[in-house]
């Protein structure tokens, strides 16, 4: 029948649009994609507000069982809730061909002949302007992943440097780890998951400076940066200073 991707905005259940709320309450099945980003409220609170049970679509589900969602949408009204805006990561999808994005769900549903609707909402891609920087001066957005032992991917630093050379700002999205397994548990087939981890601004700065050292790039300490947390919430935090 239809798959509707509904953006939830940045903070809590009250950020959903009226169109989004109507789609949710009319749905036969509601999923919440909850591993690429998180809201500041739990699932129970969302269920009470939306008056609908919610099925959590974690990483395992999206990567391995998304067909369940698409099959249901053939003859049911299915809603997939997305923190922020459903399509904020389309550019990243086109570049990396990852099969875990909301854009991929959209394309696969269309290939199956399922009608797809998208209800947009605010995302960090626009809300970052709360720090006072002008959006048209932003270059390519980067993601900073957690370093893990000897695994230290630093390609993000090259993009930051390129943006600086072009006199552009860089939005750095910080890593989150939700329902992740250690390599050992994955190899043993143990259904054991690590506690959730959310990268702090301090950790991101530490890794950025480490990446600069690995690239033999001097002067990174003098970069003026803004740190933003909980944007859109009443207790949002925005700070600035040299790295």
Comma- or semicolon-separated keywords:
five-stranded parallel β-sheet, Methyltransferase, Cobalt-precorrin-4 Transmethylase, Domain 2, alpha/beta, globular
CATH topology type of the largest domain: Methyltransferase, Cobalt-precorrin-4 Transmethylase, Domain 2
The helix fraction, in percent, is 25-40%
> What is the count of structural domains?
2
CATH architectural name of the largest domain: 2-Layer Sandwich
- Rounded Rg: 19 Å
pLDDT below 50 for ≥5 consecutive residues: which ranges?
A: 89-100
Strand order across the largest sheet? 3-2-4-1-5
The structure class reads alpha/beta
Q: Element order, helices and strands? A: EHEHEHHEHHEHEHEEHEHEE
Residue-averaged pLDDT: 88
End-to-end CA span:
51 Å
Count up the helices.
10
- Assembly of the depicted chains: single chain
Structural features, described:
By secondary structure, this protein is α/β, with parallel strands linked by helices. It has two domains: 2-119, Cobalt-precorrin-4 Transmethylase, domain 1 (3-Layer(aba) Sandwich); 124-242, Tetrapyrrole methylase, C-terminal domain (Methyltransferase, Cobalt-precorrin-4 Transmethylase, Domain 2). Helices cover 34% and strands 19% of the residues. It has ten helices and eleven strands. It has helices at residues 18-26, 43-50, 59-64, 66-72, 90-96, 102-111, 124-127, 155-165, 183-188, 201-214; strands at residues 2-7, 29-33, 55-57, 77-82, 115-119, 142-144, 172-174, 176-177, 197-198, 224-229, 237-242. Strands 3-2-4-1-5 form a five-stranded parallel β-sheet, sandwiched between helices. A two-stranded parallel ribbon has the order 6-7. A two-stranded antiparallel sheet has the order 8-9. A hairpin with a 7-residue loop joins strand 10 (224-229) and strand 11 (237-242). The longest helix has 14 residues, at 201-214. This is diphthine methyl ester synthase. Residues 3-189 form the Tetrapyrrole methylase domain. GO terms for molecular function: diphthine methyl ester synthase activity. S-adenosyl-L-methionine binds at residues 10, 85, 98, 123-124, 174, 231. It holds the Pfam family TP_methylase.
């Amino acid at each position: 029948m239809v798959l509707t991707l509904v953006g939830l905005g940045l903070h809590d259940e009250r950020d959903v649009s009226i169109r989004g709320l109507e789609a949710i309450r009319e749905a036969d099945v509601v999923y919440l994609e909850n591993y690429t980003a998180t809201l500041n409220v739990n699932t129970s609170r969302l269920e009470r507000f939306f008056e609908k049970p919610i099925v959590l679509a974690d990483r395992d589900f999206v990567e391995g069982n998304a067909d369940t969602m698409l099959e249901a949408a053939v003859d049911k009204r299915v809603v997939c809730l997305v923190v922020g805006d459903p399509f904020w990561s389309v550019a990243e999808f086109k570049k990396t061909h990852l099969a875990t994005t909301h854009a991929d769900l959209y394309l696969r549903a269309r290939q199956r002949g399922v009608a797809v609707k998208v209800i947009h909402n605010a995302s960090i891609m626009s809300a970052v302007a709360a720090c006072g920087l002008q959006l048209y001066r932003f270059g390519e957005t980067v993601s900073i992943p957690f370093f893990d032992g000897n695994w230290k991917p630093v390609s993000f630093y090259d993009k930051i440097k390129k943006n600086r050379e072009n006199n552009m700002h860089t939005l750095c999205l910080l890593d989150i780890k939700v329902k992740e397994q250690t390599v050992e548990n994955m190899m043993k087939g143990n259904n054991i998951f690590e506690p959730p981890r959310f990268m702090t601004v301090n950790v991101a700065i530490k890794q950025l400076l480490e990446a600069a050292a690995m690239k033999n790039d001097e002067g990174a300490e003098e970069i003026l940066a803004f740190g933003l947390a909980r944007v859109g919430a009443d207790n949002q935090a925005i700070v600035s200073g040299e790295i």
